[in-house]
Amino acid sequence: MTDTSSFSPRGSTAEVEEGLAFAPKFDADGLITAVATDAKSGDVLMVAHMNAEALRRTIATGEAWYFSRSRRALWKKGESSGHVQRVVAQRL
Questions:
Q1: 28, 82, 87, 91: which is deepest, by most CB within 10 A?
Q2: CA 22, CA 45: separation in Å to the nearest integer?
Q3: Long-range pairs of 69-78 with CB within 8 A, sequence gap ≥ 24
């Protein structure tokens, strides 16, 4: 199970959609789907998954972290390729 305690609890639909609390909705496996786009063109760069820890690290560092479902491990985009994804904006 993923530790989501650092995020706000999910409230009503109105609270989630109109409120100021950051309350991501993780699926039964503790993941959310992340879509990375180019900040200038809007082109989709990749689709991956984040667990709560990957999301926390992304917010804390300003660089994209993901969760590999096949390896069951966190990974930082660009760690081996050098193609780091710097976060300009996040939308939920």
A1: 87
A2: 24
A3: 69/29, 69/31, 77/36, 77/46
What is the spatial distance between Cα 8 and Cα 53, in angstroms, rounded to a whole number?
15
Q: Which two tokens stand for residue 20?
A: 């100021």
Residue 62 DSSP code: S
pLDDT in tens, 34-67: 999 999 999 999 999 999 999 999 999 999 999 9
Residue 43: how many CB atoms within 10 A of its CB? 9
Torsion of CA 54, 72, 23, 9, to 10 degrees: -120
pTM attached to this predicted model = 0.82
